[in-house]
Predict the structure.
Amino acid sequence: MERTGMLRRVDKMGRVLLPTAIRRQYHLDCDEMVEIYTQRNGIWLKNFDIEADIIAQAGALCESVDQMEQDIMNKRELREYLKKTKRGIKRLAKKAELE
């Protein structure tokens, strides 16, 4: 983490104005979404990328489905349903990647 030397006050509404130079550097336009993270020593802002978030969640969901599939190998109908669901999730993730 780099020190910028810039200080800003928190207003009565709890808002902090980000300097133009920082907004430009991180491609933060008006109405852009940011994620807020907290740690013991401070607060972090991160550009929010909805497509990357959907793809990551789809991947995690596929992994969960894989684990469930392994846990219930003896239940054929459910295993087939899970495979179809996983294929559908992968198609959605691929579609989100292409858009």
User: Anything to note?
Assistant: The domain at 1-48 is CATH 2.10.260.10 (Pemi-like Protein 1; Chain: D). The CA atoms of residues 69 and 75 lie 9 Å apart. The chain has a mean pLDDT of 84.
